[in-house]
Amino acid sequence: MVEAQDFEEVFPGIFRWEAFSPEHKVELTSHAVLLNGALYCFDPILLAHKRMVDLASRGVPKAIVLTNGNHERASEKWRERWKVPVWTSEGAGLDQLGCQALPSGQASWQEQWEIHPLEGGAPGETAFGCAELSLLIVGDAIVNLPYRRLELLPAKYCVNRNLLEMNLRKVVVPSFERLCVAHGQTLVRGASEAVRKLLG
What we know:
alpha/beta; Metallo-beta-lactamase, Chain A; five-stranded mixed sheet
């Protein structure tokens, strides 16, 4: 299991860590978001113990969130250490992990988050919007690897690429500045416009 040695604060309240996975042949990226003193951790890979302790000191751990069924990653380790629930969509197929199910359909969650199902991507693909930070967090639907740049998930990894694009168009109707992805760099400005250009 891959482990990141450090995290960075890419924007006030948004933390990011990453490690290359030889098994998956790609960088695995994780984020934590601090909202009103609570920490939400998205798609976490392992993080060096001292840095995990440091991260937890920034706020009160609230939840671990998996954006799709392929992102179990190190969520069980984080649940054991942080003593918080793991949340994912019912369609992710991770019931065996004892995950709690997010509200079905587009809805709010934990008051701070808007849930956007992205059918057509990976199983259970779900985006999370936070108006307070002008932020959208996605799993595999959008990738931003430095050696490939911003792109939509390639069709061979999608359940239905056309359906995914249709659902992404709904997500970018309201503008947002910041985008966190599960593989690659974080965009901290002009994110919704960049995604609109990808969608054509």
